Amino acid sequence: MRVGKLKKRKMGQMDYGIFYSVVLLLAVGVVMVYSASSYYAMFRNNDSMYFLKRQLIWAILGMAVMYIMMSIDYHKIKRYTFGIMIASIPLLLLVFLFPGVNGAQRWIQIGPLSFQPSELAKYVVVLFLAKSIELKGDGVKKFNTGIVPYLGVSGIYAALILAEKNLSIASVIMIVTFIILFSSGGRIKHLFGIVAPLMVAAATIFTLGEPYRRARMLNFINPWKDPAKNGYQLIQSFYALGAGGVTGLGLGQSRQKTLYMPEPHNDFIFAIIGEELGLIGCILIITIFMVFIWRGIKVAMTAKDTYGTLLAVGITSVIAVQSLINIAVVTGSMPVTGVPLPFISYGGTSLVINMAAMGILLNISRQTEGKIDT
Description:
- Helix 2 runs antiparallel to helix 3 (about 50-70), helix 4 packs antiparallel against helix 5 (about 115-135) and helix 10 (about 230-245) packs across helix 11 (about 270-300).
- Strand 1 and strand 2 (about 115) form a beta hairpin.
- The radius of gyration is 21 Å and the shape is globular.
- Residues about 1-10 and about 370-374 have low confidence and may be disordered.
- The protein has 13 helices and two strands; from the N terminus they run ααααββααααααααα.
- It has a two-stranded antiparallel sheet with strand order 1-2.
- It has one domain.
- With about 375 residues, it is mostly helical.
- The chain is about 70% helix and about 0% strand.
- Its EC number is 2.4.99.28.
- Pathway: Cell wall biogenesis; peptidoglycan biosynthesis.
- InterPro entries: FtsW, FtsW/RodA, SpoVE.
- This is Probable peptidoglycan glycosyltransferase FtsW.
């Protein structure tokens, strides 16, 4: 291993493609959270800047955490991985001691603050897979001893999150696990012949097994069949995107945010972006995410070791999968599910933890085999 040499060598420059992509998305997020939430905040909290002030605090804290993690050698995380895994399980269970929100128990409430352990768990799984697969090496090509154990560990975390009524993040964990196993050399016949069909079957069972999820699935096919209840949010999203057209109504000019769209600053903020900034704004946001994914893959390909490669793949995949699901939901391309748009949707836990992960990814980019093309 060359870890010892890495510690003595001065780190190089970070990947500015990733850095600027994240900063741009974060800036857009702060602006759009204010624009999307101002009317709702004035009605509910008598303060149009209520959510803006909180998002600004989390954004500043997130930038600080990203800088700290970017300065710490990512190899040092290995020694804490097992401890983080153990600590995350009680946190996932602790949510059941707090009252649910909209039928789901996902948050630990401490006074005015809340923490969502599932946001941490998705990266805990990435840390575990990267460390363990590096040690296993080519053993990952064996199904019983190389694929099944990792699916089992990820499945435990996914099951705990599923019990919180959070199928979306549970799905993200399993999809990212699949991507990491594929990237680490898992056999195609195992992954696509056995694992993928089983994952699709499990997702179908869990979706149809709960009445509210089944209603969402059937409603996704024709939301106008139940426009006042299950189809309401998706229909409002369509109205927002349709009203925005190509160029948008203008920043701050959304009509759907005026209490038509439920909590427009959360999971459906992309619809408000489409209404105010139009198709052009949506394409720009998607382009920034694509640049981030491209640079993340580039960092994974040039990482110093297998551990860095798999960490980069996992972190990049979490953001890629979440952004894809969120945009697909908002545009009616898949059933409605609660996945925030990374760096843009309102939420402190998601933002700070994502920014910490970005710090790790940037640290990996500072320790590559050669200079990355810019």
